[in-house]
Amino acid sequence: MKIIFAKTSDIVRCHEIDAAIGIPTHPAFLRETQKYKKLIIAKDSKKIIGYMCYSVLWGTLPFVHFIRIHPLWQRKGVGSFLLQFLEKKIKTEKFSCLLSSTEHDNRNSFSFHKKNGFSSCGKIKFNKKETEVFFIKNIPS
Q1: DSSP state letter for 121
Q2: For residue 5, which of 53, 45, 49, 46 has the smallest C-alpha distance?
Q3: How far apart are CA 105 and CA 87, in angstroms?
Q4: pTM for the whole thing?
Q5: Rounded to the nearest 5 degrees, what angle is found at the Cα of 74, between the Cα atoms of 70 and 75?
Q6: CA gap 23, 41 in Å, rounded
Q7: How far apart are CA 115 and CA 136, in angstroms?
Q8: Residue among 86, 95, 135 at smallest CA distance from 115
Q9: Between the N and C ends of the chain, which has fewer C-beta atoms within 10 Å?
Q10: Interior CA angle at 93 toward 90 and 98, to 5°?
């Protein structure tokens, strides 16, 4: 498996992964993250099998917007490899932690975060039905 920054031509495959899991991403968002090297892809020998988008909030806090993995590749370590790639990158940029979040009822994501060294650090309730839970991971220097 190869983890690299996405090229413009990779965005189409990212949208195909979105369609396969039933969660669309706005095309402008993927173009923007790719333009600024914030779109990371995982490839098997020939095909993109997953991707991650992130940004740096307030210029000081790296934040994982989401990780999307094609259903045929889920629970095979692809998300963890994407995360490890990002951690190495932000460590070289002298960031000391990484923030992420998920919907409160996404148990698979809770398990993923815990397995990858994140701790719960708060939540935001948007309305009576939607709550986003935040996770943080320290990145040792």
Answers
A1: E
A2: 53
A3: 26
A4: 0.94
A5: 170
A6: 17
A7: 13
A8: 135
A9: C
A10: 30
